[in-house]
Amino acid sequence: MEGFGSALEKNAADLTVMDVYDIAAVVGQEFERIIDQYGCEALSRLMPKVVRVLEILEVMVSRSSMSPDTEELRLELDRLRLERIERLEKERKHRQELEQVEDVWRGEAQDLLSQIAQLQEENKTLLSNMPIKDSMNEEELQRHEGMTEKEKQVMLRLKEVVDKQRDEIRAKDRELSLKNEDIEALQQQQSRLMKINHDLRHKISVVEAQGKALIGQKVELEAGAQAQAQEVGALRQEVTRLRERLQVEASTQNPEEPLPLPPSPAEEAFCEESGGLDLKDPNRPRFTLQELRDVLHERNELKAKVFLLQEELAYYKSDEAEDEIESPSPELRSRSRSSAPPESGIKRLIFTAIM
Hints:
This protein is mainly alpha-helical. Helix content is about 80%, strand content about 0%. The chain has helices at about 1-10, 15-40, 45-65, 70-130, 140-255, 265-275, 290-325, 345-355.
């Protein structure tokens, strides 16, 4: 009961599935007390609504107990995807700029080549006319030398432009290769994060399955213990009724009332364990030594099993926490698994408690 009380005193954000089951056990015990006093009709309409509310609370707590690292991984993955899209967009713009530069370079080169072809044609014409003219004056020679110098200047300027554009193209190629390497590194990091996320999801599903199995075992053991306690109570009532009947028969046969027998050591131990029975009460229930031993032994076994299950559940919880701490911090996770939720044990726990 102390554990159930602590579950009710917790903050709503700190509740776990185990706390919800503890609260359900407390509600079941309260239902049992009300049914013992007023009957089942008093709770016939309220009980399904309370069970539904507890089931909804269980689903909400299980959703809110997801690891925060998975949310960080999901955000990291979204950030990497946005960076990749931005890099691809920059690369596309860079390629467009390169294509524009190449188009401009091709146009200028074509113009210069056409000028060179024109100058060569003029040169050939002049060379073909030279043998015909026997006497060429100095003015014509200077004009021919001026045109040859012009061709040299045009060739030098064309070479400078070609070299400059070649250097620019090489620089753009180096920048493009660096961008591709960055993209490949980001893709490898994304693959690694996706693999880590898959492993974490698998571990979380295994731990959740183990925890739910342990919760089911605990519910079954608690239900068995409650059923055993009810059987013991029924036996006590039956023994009390038989004892009263024997006392009535003995009083009719012998008016002198016999002294009550002293309690046996087994009865004393049972009364101490039950707490609330008076050893001096002549109408207290009496059992044989073997019956008391069997009841006490079975109850101790149930307590031991419940304790072992609680220890095992605590171990799995601590193991899950260590796995979450040791897992790498970069995270992407926002996978919404559309799997049907497992059957809740709250309904079975409450209805077993009030049986």
